Amino acid sequence: MNIYLIVFIYLFLNYASQNEDGSEVERTSRFSTTLPGVAHVPFLTPAVVQERRPLIVAVMSAAASGTSKAAHGDVAAKRKKGPGALATAYLVIYNVVMTAGWLVIAVGLVRAYLARGSYHGLYYSIEKPLKFFQTGAVLEILHCAVGIVPSSVVLTGFQVMSRVFLTWAVTHSVKEVQSEDSVLLFVTAWTVTEIIRYSFYTFSLLNHLPYLIKWARYTFFIVLYPMGVTGELLTIYAALPYVQKTGLYSVTLPNKYNFSFDYYTFLILIMISYIPLFPQLYFHMIRQRKKVLGHIEDYGKVE
Amino acid sequence: MKTGGKRKPAKKTKKAVVFFEVEILDAKTKDKLCFLDKVEPNATIGEIKSMFHKSHPQWYPARQSIRLDPKGKSLKDEDVLQHLPVGTTATFYFRDLGAQISWVTVFLTEYTGPLVIYLLFYFRVPFIYPPKYDFTTSKHWVVHLACMCHSFHYVKRLLETLFVHRFSHGTMPLRNIFKNCTYYWGFAAWMAYYINHPLYTPPIYGEQQIRIALIIFLFCQIGNFSIHIALRNLRPPGSKTRKIPYPTKNPFTWIFLLVSCPNYTYELGSWLGFTLMTQCLPVAFFTLVGFIQMTVWAKGKHRSYLKEFRDYPPLRSPILPFIL
């Protein structure tokens, strides 16, 4: 994980002193092009990397604003819409940290497998980082609410909360399912997906998205999405008998608030909700894939 | 009749009429959908919509959005052609608003549901509660009171829809009826299930709590009705004028001094009263969700009042005096 961060910081600094075409940047006030409004690309839309001038240049100039040289750049930067220099720097750090975190989980899974020699009970070896980094994704809802990421708060909220629900309200709460293989199934799917997704965002923000990452982002889901859904459904199904037996998170009548809640029925309704939701999301991603990756193939044909 | 170039400009006796030509393009594809020539300069957008409807019968006027700019605001039906910033050949852009349904229809449907559904639970119709309770009645008198209040509330709403409200818009998108009915009918069923349940627990503070709750409820029902009447009287029949509402002789309208949308304030009060009366958490949820929605509407209305009227009273808040 340390090596990964060092590589990233190296790339970060590298871009600070280079233009898109590789020539050295002039550290003068002639930053007439304002801050690139590179948006933190949301999950369901293709990368919208538009500006030519590396964002990092503006970040560095903002940081070095003590000198009069960079002053003009700052003024020009403020007029542009979209996430500011500070917000973009924060988002880069956020995405790097999340990529690193999920890599830790991936490495943890591999090491545990090699140590034990079997697939069973790997959840326990990555339980803490999984909870930490998956819960940390709640910040993404805040990013949308504040406006530094142009996604819908509702959509992001829904996606993040469904993950958090599975992590805490099912896997953590019903201890008996933690040794199930279905847990490994969705944890693996999530891990690979998140590593690709967060690196995708990181590279997009840095204005240098390798085609490989873009391709992976829009291709791996074909297998990972059904894999994750299967793992999730099997885990919820495995939890049902224990929830019913212990009355977990359930409230019965009579009580002074005249309210009741049956967690067992609630979990069944959740499982049923996958039926309309999953195909919609899946086919949306397939359409996005055609849009994003389809162009590249067309250009290839023209040559 | 067209003006000849030789005629002297006569200001008073202007017999010559310059007809307009109107072309309507699709706002998204910019395709020419319709061309109307010999349009009277004093024709309204409403009349143009009727003419457009003749050539495209599937787009009745209520679902047409006509604008000057593809991404601009919709023009109003009352706008007159010659007063718009267009040349004698006017280009308008059309957007299909989708299937429309009248506000009155939506209101009647969404309010009749809760009225009927609550009563189904109140009379303990079979298949809701365990069979031994079918068609029994609750032994708690607050349950009967709650049924009366809930039913009164929705009967009042239905009557207001039919006889009191004057709607600015005739229609809304069709999908709204499904959304709205799910909301009202769903919550009504959820609340009614618990209030009329055989294992219902009456309020902790008993008669005292119920009495206070009933007073609050009735006070706010009268208040809400007074506001609806006051708003109706601002607007002559058949018109769509907008005026600043002011307090009238009716003390229940004096709240206009402090609030832009007191109808929502009173509505919140009614449901708080009902929550207190039934001491039921689902009712509290319903009150909360309704409050959030009404606050959004009140803020929007307050903003449009401020935009439209320079002399709008500065002391007023959207929904809660001084607070929100």
Q: What's the overall average pLDDT of chain B, rounded?
A: 90
Q: What's the Cα radius of gyration of chain B?
A: 26 Å
Global Rg of chain A: 23 Å
Count of separate DSSP helical elements of chain B: 7
Structural class of chain B: alpha+beta
CA distance, first residue to last residue of chain B: 59 Å
Tell me the strand order in the biggest sheet of chain B.
2-1-4-3
Tell me, what's the shape of chain B? elongated
Instruction: Specify the helix fraction band of chain A.
Output: 55-70%
Mean pLDDT of chain A: 79
Strand content of chain B: 5-15%
Name the helix and strand elements of chain B from N-terminus to C-terminus, one letter apiece. Answer: EEHEEEHHEHHHH
Main beta sheet strand tally, sense and closure of chain A: none
Pattern of helices and strands of chain A: HHHHHHHHHHH
Characterize the largest beta sheet of chain B: strand count, sense, and whether it forms a barrel: 4 strands, mixed
Quaternary organisation: heterodimer
Question: How many beta-strand runs of chain A?
Answer: 0
Largest interface: chains, residues each: A-B, 8 and 12 residues
- Structural classification of chain A: mainly alpha
Shape summary of chain A? globular
What is the topological layout?
The complex is a heterodimer of chains A (303) and B (324).
Chain A: H1 2-16, H2 55-63, H3 71-79, H4 85-116, H5 123-136, H6 139-146, H7 153-172, H8 181-205, H9 211-217, H10 221-246, H11 263-302
Helix pairs in contact in A: 1-2, 2-4, 4-5, 4-8, 5-7, 6-7, 8-9, 8-10, 10-11
Chain B: E1 20-26, E2 32-39, H1 45-55, E3 64-67, E4 89-96, E5 100-102, H2 103-122, H3 141-163, E6 171-173, H4 175-195, H5 206-234, H6 262-278, H7 281-308
Parallel strand pairs in B: 1-4
Antiparallel strand pairs in B: 1-2, 3-4, 5-6
Transmembrane segments (chain A): 89-114, 135-158, 218-243, 263-283
Membrane topology (chain A): Multi-pass membrane protein
GO molecular function, one term (chain A): very-long-chain (3R)-3-hydroxyacyl-CoA dehydratase activity
